[in-house]
Amino acid sequence: MIEQHPRSQSMSARGRAWNAALLAKPGDLDLTIETSRIEGRVPAELTRGRLLSNGPGWTKIGDRLAHPFDGHGYVRAFSFEANGSVRLRARFVETPVYRDEATAGQLVRRGLGTNPSPYFWKNIMAKRDRNVANTTVQRWNGTLLAGWEGGAPYRVDPDSLATQGEETFGGVLAGQSTLAHMKLDAAAKRLVTCSVKLGRTTSLTFREFDEAGRLVHTREAVLPTALIIHDFVITPNWYGFIGNPVRMKFGTLGRVMLGGAALVEAVATDLAAPGVCYLVPRTSDAPLRTVTLPERAFAVHYGNAFERDGAVVLDACISPDIDFASAFGFQGPTAPIDVEKPDADEPPRLVRVVVKNGAGAGTWTQLAPHGIEFPRVHPAHDGRETPVLFGAARADLRHASPFDSVARVDLMDPERPTDVWTAPENVFVGEPIFAPSAERDDAGHLLAMLYDGLREVSTLAIFDAKSLSSGPVARIPMPLMPYAFHGAWDEPA
After folding, report:
1. Domain ranges of the chain
2. For residues 379, 382, 388 and 393, what is the CA-based torsion angle, rounded to 10 degrees?
């Protein structure tokens, strides 16, 4: 189903296309795209695994538009069959709030960026526990984990995608605001999570689970300031992240408490704070390291990190500022999404931060001329040096989101130009996922969803990972899917 905002007809073609991609709600899907409908040929190597993705699949709820942060999780699995066809299965993550709102047909709980009612007194009475499990998807301990920012992940059956319930790892994560992003330490065979408690200071708890879901390591750290953390990195000896300092707008916070504003409206970046990187020892109880950076820095996502000659090397998408409330062009529950709004922001730049052993200051180098986000590397390379990084980008170097391109950055040869492919006009590009070759770490295929809201179709584009600019080697057509946040390349054991 393609939802249209009542004011959509007055928007530009690009604006209508972006709104359609964010508001699409195809619902549960079980379909096969036969080879006769596929342009090109699906590489046989992809039959080793499948593409998973997760993102808000229901944002126009009743007569109000939810902030994309608050849309209901919608897990998609794209399986590559031996005969060259592609099977698509998609299901909502049936959290308690999903079931409540599916029954009511309207928003009933408060979220990070949305209130359910225009009347403050109704919002005061509404529940606040809005875990929509809409951000990440990761295989672990025989199941899929659908992550969200403000609670524990939800278990999803790997085959049917049926929701199995909240995953607290035996109660360990119960009641914890656990980051949606999780890290996979392939060498140690551990899943790493990070739980956050935000106040005047920020408390972090890193936990590591083995393949049976048992807790095998815990490390806590307290930061002397309030900050927002969405993602982090690991190396064999460190957990790391850029300090994203924030300040509370206390007047707006009062309105939040009284039901007149959403939480993200009360949070702003602290532009007076210097850029810092925090390194938390992973293998000892030594104190965390606070490392100053060359400029003010805010990072939402990271490509990877590793250690070299005692130094910690961290690849991050860094911006001078972040506007949480207007992410994706959100303008409130009664207005259409503004596709031009993100263009006012300075685009994130992919930089390599180097912190030498014992150093109190780090250096950085920009790795690509484009604004890049959704950075992805080899799925088994968290914490180790890797040869190539892929990301979503914009052909216009002045801007980033909404993305229209995919980019390949050679991490071993910084002089090599960024390899870029750009979609047709008014077609948007989602997070690219690397499906590596079984023989070479820098070879394989790149999978990216293309969203064409004007034609109400999506295309799964498959690229040779070593030559993006040559264009897709296969294009798999499907109904217009809602714009996804994050995905994963899944190779069952």
Report:
1. 8-490
2. 80
Q: DSSP assignment, residue 36?
A: G
- Cα 93 to chain centroid distance, Å, stands at 16
Q: For the chain, what's the residue count?
A: 493
CB 109 within 8 A of CB 128: yes
Q: Which residues contact 321 (CB under 8 A, 6 or more apart)?
A: 269, 271, 296, 298, 345, 346
Could you report the average pLDDT of every consecutive run of 10 residues in the chain (493 residues)?
59 96 97 98 96 98 96 98 97 98 97 95 92 97 94 97 97 95 97 93 96 97 92 98 91 92 91 94 95 95 97 96 91 96 93 96 97 97 97 96 97 95 98 95 96 98 98 98 98 81
Which uninterrupted H or E stretch holds 490?
Answer: strand 486-490
DSSP 483: P
* 8-490, CATH topology level: Methylamine Dehydrogenase; Chain H (2.130.10)
Q: What φ, ψ does residue 216 adopt, rounded to 5°?
A: -120, -10
Q: What is the pLDDT of residue 3?
A: 57
- Give the DSSP letter string of 41-80: ---GGGGG-EEEEEEES--EETTEEPPGGGSPEEEEEEEE
User: Hunting for tokens 């069952």 — which residue is that?
Assistant: 492
Structure tokens, 264: 């993200």
Euclidean distance between CA atoms 133 and 152, whole angstroms: 8
